[in-house]
From TrEMBL:
It catalyses: alpha-D-glucose 6-phosphate = beta-D-glucose 6-phosphate. One of its GO terms (cellular component) is cytoplasm. It comes from Linum tenue. GO terms for molecular function: carbohydrate binding; glucose-6-phosphate 1-epimerase activity. This is glucose-6-phosphate 1-epimerase. It is an enzyme of class 5 (isomerase). Belongs to the glucose-6-phosphate 1-epimerase family. Its EC number is 5.1.3.15.
Amino acid sequence: MSSFEGGGGGEKKYVEFCTGVNGLDKVILREVRGQSAEVYLNGGQVTSWKNEYGEELLFLSSKAVFKPPTAIRGGIPISFPQFGMHGSLEQHGFARNTVWTIDKDPPPFPTVSSNKAFIDLILKPSEDDPKSWPHRFEFRIRITLGPGGDLMLTSRIRNTNTDGKPFTFTFAYNNYFYLTDISEVRIEGLETLDYLDNLNSRDRVTEQGDAITFESEVDKVYLKTPTKIAILDHERKRTYVLRKDGLPDAVVWNPWDKRAKEIVDLGDEEYKHMLMVGAACVEKPITLKPGEEWKGRQELSAVPSSYCSGQLDPQKVLRLG
């Protein structure tokens, strides 16, 4: 499960199992040039992603709670089997506040053979799951840190019901990007698209701006989005690139000042340094019959700010085998 490589200073450990905050189980992924990612089994959640300079690329709240069953505020929480509050379950479902286990016998994943820094996790039903979603399933996720520092998450969800019943779900990777100043950020790739406005009764609206910028609270689900989205941090001269496959929607959220003060696990001023841009499947829920499997994948990279969505290599669109 963990891989090692000999080096001049001894062995290089790509995968390390250790304990994190409050003694919770944590996995650290490392690459040769110094990039790293941290994954907590609580929520199957990435909480840190650093480049070769040790700079943090994901936002994690200073008030984040590391105590199951509370979800961790920041990083990349996973919404399953429900995104938002529009359903019978708690907001964003139960995957993000359930403790996952190491998947010791995963099925073959389509992956680049050179990737050595990865971890396979699995979530299965338990007695504690909500009775309002009484289904059997296997949710597998592979989290990979590529040699170039890209962070890849590949999810597989399978219906293992024995009663012949299908089930339906929505899904999101809720990526909290760390930013220098939210007022100096723009998103490219979502222009002219329709979105659901969660601040206005989920009204369907068409985006009018040339690029998405921020000066107040935003909570939107963009529909039929491209496979590549760029988040430009002008102050840091850095662009985050989100590539996705199997996830047609994109969630964009920032609470701004008033709402931030109401969120107990978020600092009052921390909204200035974060933006959640999620790869999601929300508008049209996914239905699986027994034995069927769904796949959804995203890849995150951080590149110099001279890049924009129109310049991204179209050959690098994600493909699943």
